[in-house]
Design goal:
heterodimer; A: mainly alpha; two-stranded antiparallel ribbon; 2 strands; B: five-stranded parallel sheet; 15% strand
């Protein structure tokens, strides 16, 4: 990774920009957008492992996000421990859920996995909405006022920013490593054609399973980070279909199945979302959605491979021109 | 000599007239968070129009508005006539976005106070930001009990909440019993999201305290397209009063299904929401005759202050004010009153002024017993009326000392 950084000036610049963003932008609102961006990049990158690399399009990843989001606040509500203590609980439950869903649905090919994930996520959302132990429809709250740093209730956005950034770096480094190992080839072979991959000796089902578990782990962590920062979770913001859809959109927008695709997708979408809402949100005209939707349609129509694809095409053409 | 005096006078007058605008106080900025798009967008937009009317009443002279605070003067007199400047943001019902927008209003737009945020989930997160930055926030209309009561210093809520509604129902049932009506048991039917769940929980709890037996509680999904099973359950338990905590389509569906299954309890009480929706009366007017509903807002007789407020609102939107937007409007008036008494945009002074709020019923537009915040920030004098469907309109029937018409019991409906 270090060598890659040195080779690629854009990567180096991005890393520097990420590192110094909260130093340059001292306004809390811009820092908060930074945190939102990182969270979107983490969850989309986590989705990308199974949805992008392995080509198993989950539209119900909110189930892992929601479980991860509920765990810290539930642990806090029940035991009074710092919410942080719930992160591993969320990861364990998320992985268990991944195994439970992957086992039957990975036997089948095609859209069954997508369908199963939507159904399970919706089921959990409805179930949580009526289950009093998890606050039913009203949801759960974190500590109203932080009791110490271990509650992770900071007044400033900066600590959240660096915690989120660290998680994103770990996730991307892990993805980068896996991409270059046998597992990465198995993933791409699975995506390209399961039957062909199997005939070549790729353990398709266990590859898909491992990808899903890994993806669930990081999506759950993203959920935990979200609820610890927000200090509140309810069924809609944890398990809502929009939570899942946003992960898919961001990854697809940037370029699914590539290391930096989800990152770039979040880089485009989150500022766009914020800007349209800031400029047009107060009138209640819904112009935000129209603009937001319009740009997504444009990209999907003219650049289905995502922004990263567009970038590669532009730079490689530039390179050729330069060479000739 | 006189000539030069005259000249001096002219110069002074000119200087004053130039200086006057510079002396006028800076505007007081109020940041308001509501859902302006999405599922609850209609409620947010109605409330937005309502506080715009309220801001007009405060910023300009409206002597016709009687005792309403700050109506007679232009702007806030204690702040040199400072005007209220409103900034609206759309949180789309997303708690995380509400948090981000509250941060933006405080740090970027530098608002002096906050107001919002309709959905309880968004009020939870936005009030936490207000508390974090030490900016006063007025919650105009969010019912979840623990929005206040988290030990926050900067959060105030003018509206009655689920406990107040539940108490009102129980007092009403108590009054009816005193009049000799037979009420042995009640049933609670609630939609199963946060609104229905929280109100139903309070109704059941208050019923227990009031020694009223709850024959059955039926939670259901507001998107149901068939509620005959639920109605059959009610029919079997045969309660004397059924309290519905429902949204629009489902409340209409219940009324129609009850008629189809030939079931009519002695009394139905609707908890505002669906029963107050403009489409409710035209859809089920006949079967719902005599249905009770909750509202702290009553348009009042022509010539009354509330009637004039409604006329202003109607001129702007083409519709009557409803209970939700009127409660937000009342919260806004209470906030403006505190800002004026604070006489400064210093957050701590505004906070102290809010804690000292003491509005009597005669200066309110709503049927509260007053506005006075307890040490959790909740309005301890919040209350609600009960209205009843007579013909094409709801009329105020309870409490008796405010009643416009005589209560009908049992409900007539058509069986």
């Amino acid at each position: 990774m270090k060598a890659a950084l040195a080779r690629n000036p854009i990567l180096l610049l991005t890393a520097a920009a990420l590192l110094f963003y909260p130093v340059v932008f001292t306004d809390a609102f811009y820092r908060d957008i930074g945190v939102t961006f990182l969270l979107a990049a983490i969850s989309a990158s986590a989705w990308n492992i199974v949805g992008g690399y392995a080509g198993q399009v989950s539209v119900g990843h909110a189930m892992f996000f929601g479980i991860g989001a509920y765990a810290p606040l539930l642990v806090y509500t029940v035991t009074g421990w710092p919410p942080m203590a719930g992160i591993p609980v969320g990861v364990i439950l998320g992985c268990a859920l991944a195994l439970a869903i992957g086992k039957p649905s990975f036997r089948l090919t095609g859209h069954y996995f997508s369908m199963a994930t939507i159904a399970v996520a919706e089921l959990i959302r409805i179930f949580f909405g009526t289950w009093a132990f998890v606050g039913a429809a009203i949801g759960l709250q974190g500590p109203a006022v932080g009791r110490g740093w271990w509650d992770l209730t900071f007044r400033s956005e900066v600590p959240y920013y660096y915690i989120f950034l660290a998680v994103l770096v770990v996730l991307l480094a892990l993805t980068w490593t896996l991409e270059r190992r046998r597992f990465g080839y198995y993933l791409r072979a699975t995506k390209a054609g399961e039957r062909a991959a199997r005939s070549l000796g790729v353990p398709v089902r266990s590859t898909k399973m491992q990808a899903l578990v890994l993806s669930a782990t990081f999506t759950s962590i993203a959920g935990s980070l979200y609820s610890i920062k927000t200090g509140f979770i309810d069924p809609e913001s944890g398990f809502g279909i929009l939570v899942s859809v946003q992960m898919v959109i961001i990854a697809a927008l940037g370029g699914a199945g590539t290391l930096f695709g989800p990152f770039i997708g979040a880089l485009v979408l989150i500022p766009l979302q914020t800007a349209t809402n800031t400029w047009f949100g107060g009138g209640g005209t819904g112009l935000t959605y129209i603009l937001y939707g319009g740009i997504i349609v444009l990209i999907a129509r003219y650049e289905p491979g995502g922004v990263l694809d567009l970038w590669t095409r532009l730079t490689s053409r530039g390179g050729r021109d330069h060479a000739s | 000599m006189t000539k030069s005096y005259a000249l001096l006078a002219v110069v002074v007058a000119a200087a004053l007239s130039v200086a006057a605008p510079a002396l006028a106080a800076d505007a007081v900025k109020i940041g308001i968070l509501w859902p302006l798009t999405g599922n609850a967008g209609a409620a947010g937009l109605a409330s937005k129009a309502a506080v715009e009317v309220a801001a007009d009443i405060i910023n300009n002279t409206h002597p016709e508005m009687g005792d309403l605070p700050l109506a007679k003067s232009a702007g806030l007199p204690n702040m040199g006539g400072a005007k209220l400047e409103l900034t609206f943001v759309d949180h789309q019902g997303n708690p995380s976005l509400a948090q981000q927008l509250a941060t933006r209003l405080i740090t970027q737009d530098k608002v002096n106070v906050l107001m919002g945020a309709y959905q309880s989930s968004c009020s939870f997160t936005a009030t936490a930001i207000a508390e974090r930055y030490g900016v006063p926030m007025m919650v105009g209309d969010s019912a979840a009990g623990n929005i206040t009561g988290r030990g926050f210093k900067w959060v105030f809520r003018a509206t009655p909440i689920a406990t107040d509604y539940a108490r009102a129902y129980m007092r009403f049932i108590g009054d009816m019993k005193k009049q000799g009506k037979k009420i042995d048991s009640i049933a609670v039917v609630n939609e199963n999201t946060d609104y229905g769940t929280s109100v139903a929980a309070e109704v059941v709890a208050e019923a227990k305290k009031a020694n009223v037996s709850v024959a059955i509680q039926i939670p259901y999904s507001a998107s149901s397209t068939d509620v005959s099973a639920q109605v059959l359950q009610l029919k079997e338990k045969n309660p004397d009063v059924v309290i519905f905590i429902s949204y629009t389509a489902d409340s209409i569906l219940y009324m129609k299904t009850m008629k189809n299954l030939n079931y009519k309890p002695p009394m139905v009480i609707g908890d505002d929401s669906g029963f107050s929706d403009p489409s409710f009366i035209p859809a089920v007017k006949d079967v719902a005759q005599g249905v009770m509903n909750r509202s702290a807002w009553v348009i009042g007789k022509p010539g009354s202050v509330t009637y004039k407020i409604n006329e202003m609102y109607k001129a702007k939107t083409g519709r009557d004010l409803d209970d939700t937007s009127a409660r937000n409007m009342q919260g806004f008036f209470a906030l403006a009153d505190a800002l004026n008494r604070a006489g400064s945009t210093d957050p701590e002074k505004i906070r102290v002024a809010l804690t000292q709020t003491d509005l009597k019923p005669n200066v309110l537009m709503m049927g509260y017993n007053g506005v006075k915040f307890d040490n959790t920030g909740q309005n301890s004098l919040a209350a609600t009326y009960l209205i009843q469907l007579h013909g094409d309109n709801y009329v105020l029937v309870w409490p008796e000392d405010h009643a416009e018409a005589k209560l009908q019991w049992p409900m007539t409906g058509t069986k």
